[in-house]
Amino acid sequence: MSMRDYEGERLVIWLAYFTAPSRAKGRRALKAKIGLKELVDICRELGLDPIEVDKVHPASKIRGLVAVRKVNSKVKIIKEISRKVGQLRSDKPS
């Protein structure tokens, strides 16, 4: 199944959006130490109906993407996920 099968219904959220070393390598949010499983769990908590796909980001070579239901713009969804990651990090004891 290709990502084109989801065109218009889903958005692709790469793990690299949060973990890449630089924006040139694909990062779109504040850098965070997050794994693919955590990303899927956060998307599920936000009600985005995530589908995990095993692909490699072309610029950063970081493996992992999640196809989420399109409920808002991509930028707003990335910001929501980033905010949730920040909340999880601040809730964890040091």
TrEMBL record:
- Domain of life of the source: Archaea
The molecular function GO annotations come to: 7S RNA binding
- Sorted alphabetically, which InterPro entries does this protein's record hold? SRP19-like_sf (IPR036521)
- Got a GO cellular component term for this one? signal recognition particle
Annotated GO biological processes are:
SRP-dependent cotranslational protein targeting to membrane
What name does this protein carry? Signal recognition particle, subunit SRP19 (Srp19)
